[in-house]
Amino acid sequence: MEIKAAVLGAMGAVPPYASSKPLAIETLRLDPPGPGEVLIRMKAAGLCHSDLSVINGDRPRPVPMALGHEAAGVVEEIGPLEGGVGGPELKPGDHVVLVFVPSCGHCEPCAEGRPALCEPGAVANTAGTLLSGACRLHRGDGTVVNHHLGVSAFADYATVSRRSVVKVDSDLPFEEAALFGCAVLTGVGAVVNTAGVKAGSAVAVVGLGGVGLAALLGALAAGARELVAVDLSEDRLAFAREIGATMTVNASDAEAADRIRTATGGGVDYAFEMAGSTTALDLAYRITRRGGVTVTAGLPPPAATMPLAPVTLVGEERTLKGSYIGTAVPARDIPRYIALYRRGRLPVDRLKSGTLRLEEINEGFDRLHEGKAIRQVVLL
User: Fold this and answer.
1) CB 10 within 8 A of CB 60
2) Is residue 120 within 8 Å of residue 104, measured between CB atoms?
3) pLDDT digits over 67-123, tens only?
4) Cβ atoms of 34 and 134 closer than 8 Å
5) pLDDT (average), residues 337-342
């Protein structure tokens, strides 16, 4: 079938993207679903820094590539059965949230209950294929167009692995459902799964993009006593105060770390770095108290490094942890987070910065690059 999709032809475009137009809306050929795959009619897709990091080249991927990974849609067609594909049965018409790490279910991490670290899933995502190793997108001349994280959501249709979708209730608006596939899964998951934040704890979040603000909401839901929000944007700091931060600090303040340690009596119990910056991670580590936990879920460029005094890990019994896709079990966590949202405990709808058409996507990435938006959603 023919579809419309936003295709990245080359990385490294210079902003403003409204002028350089790194993403072109192309007509592509989409193959039908193979064994263990499904055809999804996309309805909503969020603009995320992970997409932007491919556009600017911070996260190199094979091009041409149809971008987009945070999305929700409707099942249109189900491919042939494949042995080992578990989970609730899907049928045409089901509403689903897309997950950007497909899990095979049988590698060692999957067997240990850590599907975010699925080994075949990581290989497929890096190669730009579906979990099966197949590419289902082509230009009219037969050129293969790579898949972004097994999803390629900036399109009206997508063929994906059955392992890339989680069924959700049909009454949840698509533009809200989409956020649960990345921002909420990653941010809230870092709080409740990776760190295991305890009620009454002091928590700091460094970096207030969509994932960071979702982590802020997750810490509130977990019962944080103190909640420190840190960012370079005064507008985002003001928004963090609106949704529950008890203290806000501009990261450009040379005394930021000292101010936070003083205000929290020696540092926070849990600090989360969500900016994808080694400078932000260094700050998060410095504001974590003795015996505390620092979690990083940001994705800096692969070559980035930072200095660390290992003696603090031992002498202060500190913990530094990575969190990928919120250490999530998506089939378990997405329905739970949606239930919390329905009860008013996770007001993720407040993270939306507006909607746009697929043809406006380059302008949307300008707003994201400039820090003028949290989560914009393309309606498809």
Assistant:
1) no
2) yes
3) 999 999 999 999 997 654 444 589 999 999 999 999 999 999 999 999 999 999 999
4) yes
5) 98
Q: Indicate the SS3 state at residue 52.
A: helix
Q: How confident is the model at residue 302 (pLDDT cuts 50, 70, 90)?
A: confident
Length of the chain: 380
The pLDDT, as a whole number, for residue 88 is 55
Spatial CB neighbours of 116, under 8 Å, sequence gap ≥ 6: 101, 103, 109, 324, 325, 326, 327, 328
Q: Do the Cβ atoms of 40 and 96 come closer than 8 Å?
A: yes
Domain coordinates in residue numbering, the chain: 2-181+347-379, 186-324
- The strand pairing partners of 142, in sequence order, are none
Distance, CA of 341 to CA of 329 (rounded, Å): 18
- Report the pLDDT value the prediction gives residue 31, as an integer from 0 to 100: 98
Phi/psi-derived region of residue 278, left when phi > 0, alpha when psi is between -120 and 50, beta in every other case: alpha
CB 376 within 8 Å of CB 353: yes
**For residues 112 and 104, is the Cβ–Cβ distance under 8 A?**
no
Residue among 242, 213, 225 nearest 371 (CA): 213
Architecture of domain 186-324: 3-Layer(aba) Sandwich (3.40)
Per residue in 8-35, pLDDT (tens digit) is 999 999 999 999 999 999 999 999 999 9
Cα distances from 273 to residues 44, 103, 203, 224, 279, in angstroms, run 27, 25, 11, 17, 10
Which residue type occupies 373? A
112: left (phi over 0), alpha (psi -120 to 50) or beta: alpha
Gap between the Cα atoms of 19 and 64, Å rounded: 19
Interatomic CA distance for residues 2 and 25, integer angstroms? 13
Cα(139)–Cα(7) distance, rounded to whole angstroms?
10
Alpha-carbon gap, residue 258 to 266, rounded angstroms: 9
Show the DSSP H helices in 95-145 as ranges: 108-111, 119-127
Q: Is the CATH code 3.90.180.10 the one for domain 2-181+347-379?
A: yes
**Beta bridge pairs of residue 66:** 7, 147
Residue range 34-47: mean pLDDT, rounded = 97
Residue 191: CA atoms inside 13 Å, Cβ hemisphere, count?
30
DSSP-based three-state secondary structure for 161: strand
Query: What was the pLDDT predicted at 86?
Result: 41
